[in-house]
Design a protein that fits this description.
The protein has 250 residues and is of the alpha/beta class. It contains eleven helices and four strands; from the N terminus they run ββαβααααβαααααα.
């Protein structure tokens, strides 16, 4: 991430008042590469409740914790392995040649293996609490705390369409999925549309969705309705996803 770039977080409020945050930070690799040159922008339609933003921030903190643990574990694995192997060898030689009591070889191996495994996990715990990992956590938390949300007409338009989708009959919504209304998403910039589609791609990336997306236009409403019920599909959001993808390729 050498050049300055933007990452946009979208807050979408559903008809029942619940919040949906669309963002890329479930990707640990991307999260760990964040720095001061990356500008993170939050956009909303209807203003989110304070408690929703607090819960979202805490979710991001959990992503940071998981990502940093994985990161420090990876970069410190070789040193931990070497030290643990050395501990195995030292314990084995000590029990074999220093201790004069007759100890069966299987016991010597068990003691050596147990000692090396114990050291491996002790070192792993120490690494998790090291200055290096603490500094990384702090840097990422500061970047997350700087996120500011602002009102956006495109997100408001998505919310209005989502409200409509959640209100209409399933059969009517299913029928509308395969059609394209050019009046939709008039306020969306190409960059925002592509970014929000990339987030929705991850939500709807399972084999179940991919197969149905490819064959959606060939399926009748009854078959799609059965698919929706059998797989507990978020049909209202899925309909928006389909239309946004069509917008990109128009």
């Amino acid at each position: 991430m050498q050049k300055e770039q933007n990452i946009t977080i979208f807050h979408i409020q559903r008809k029942d008042g619940s919040s949906l945050f669309l963002h890329p930070f479930s990707d640990s690799e991307l999260l760990l590469k964040l720095n001061d040159k990356v500008k993170i922008i939050g956009k909303y339609g209807r203003e989110p409740r304070v408690e929703s933003l607090t819960m979202f921030r805490n979710d991001l903190y959990r992503y940071i914790e998981t990502s940093v643990k994985s990161w420090i574990s990876d970069i410190r694995f070789i040193p931990r392995f070497i030290l643990s192997a050395a501990a195995f060898l030292v314990i084995y030689l000590f029990t074999s040649f220093v201790i004069r009591d007759p100890v069966p070889m299987i016991d010597e191996l068990a003691l050596s293996l147990g000692g090396s495994i114990a050291l491996f996990f002790i070192l792993a715990k120490r690494d998790q609490n090291s200055d290096k990992s603490s500094k990384k956590r702090l840097e990422l938390r500061i970047l997350i705390d700087k996120i500011v949300f602002e009102e956006d007409s495109f997100v408001k338009e998505i919310e209005e369409i989502l409200y409509h989708n959640e209100s209409v009959d399933k059969a009517a919504l299913i029928e509308s999925i395969s059609s394209y209304d050019d009046s939709n998403f008039k306020n969306g910039k190409d960059k925002d549309i592509k970014q929000i589609v990339s987030y929705l791609d991850k939500i709807f990336s399972s084999r179940i969705y991919r197969k149905k997306i490819d064959n959606l236009n060939k399926s009748d409403a009854n078959r799609i309705a059965k698919w929706v019920n059998d797989n507990k599909i978020d049909l209202s959001l899925f309909a928006i996803y389909k239309k946004l993808k069509k917008k990109i390729y128009m």
